[in-house]
Fold this protein.
Amino acid sequence: MELILMILLPFPIGFLVKHRLAAFVAYIAVHNFVFTFQTAELLAAWTKGDTSAFPADTTGFAMFPYAAVNAVIFAVGLGLVWLGHRLGTKRRERRTVDLAA
């Protein structure tokens, strides 16, 4: 879910929202909702005995790979928001043409 969201939303949000802070806040809000829902679904499956998301680990670091992958997905999404905003800002700039030339 989170990966699909990262592919579909951050660039258009950055491109279409005029203020950069508002674009970042919008993406963070949507991402946090999806991340919470995804984690709740995986934990519910894990409590029922499904160990595909969180394998049985005696060292205590079973959820570290999940956290690392999600952090990378989040960082790439923020980068796409930044890129979309940068390109959107360049597209919205007023261009003056010297008609006397």
